[in-house]
Write a structure and sequence with these properties.
The protein is an all-alpha fold. The protein contains 5 helices and no strands. It has a domain of about 80 residues. It comes from Nocardioides imazamoxiresistens.
């Protein structure tokens, strides 16, 4: 026992509540993943029973291939729409929310599984309806983590309240052109 160590404590052992908190965090991640795998297996078995194993495999693999193709196309389309809206001087709220929904739907299609594919297709089809609630949820979550959101102006100088741009040239003090 050293002089600075209290009797009955070991510096190599975790704090009394740390192990329990760590196990709870692991359970919050592991349990939903485990439930998701069980649901996906049950859905695949139900589809295989209903339509046959070959058809179930074609559906799952086809959805993954479709998701990969759509992910590239929808990602480019979403970025292009957001940039065009920002260049027009408007906040690209709907375009960003629609892009997030499109990418999420495509990723769910890529991940093998019947339920993932159905949810991914629903996100892609219902994107126009879900864009506004998704934007609200996204900004609410980002504000909670300290990220500034809200009305913003994309014009140069608009962030500090000025709308004027002074054109000029930076001259180094050691420059001979003065």
């Amino acid at each position: 026992m050293t002089d600075q160590q209290l009797p009955g404590t070991d510096p190599h052992r975790p704090a009394p509540g740390a192990v329990r908190a760590s196990r709870l965090r692991a359970l919050r991640v592991t349990l939903p993943l485990l439930v998701g795998v069980v649901v996906e297996v049950a859905a695949f078995l139900a589809l295989a029973e209903l339509a046959g194993v070959f058809v179930a495999l074609v559906v799952v693999i086809g959805a993954s291939v479709l998701g990969m193709v759509l992910l590239a196309r929808e990602g480019r389309r979403s970025v292009r729409a957001a940039v065009e809206t920002a260049r027009a001087g408007r906040a690209p709220e709907g375009e960003v929310a629609g892009g997030v929904l499109a990418v999420l739907g495509c990723v769910l299609l890529v991940v093998p599984g019947v339920v993932n594919s159905v949810v991914g297709l629903l996100l892609l089809v219902a994107r126009p309806v879900l864009a506004r609630p998704a934007w609200w949820l996204l900004t609410r979550r980002t504000r909670r983590h300290g990220v500034p959101t809200g009305p913003w102006d994309v014009r140069p100088g608009a962030a500090d309240g000025r709308d004027d741009v002074v054109r000029g040239e930076v001259v180094d003090e050691g420059d001979d052109r003065r």
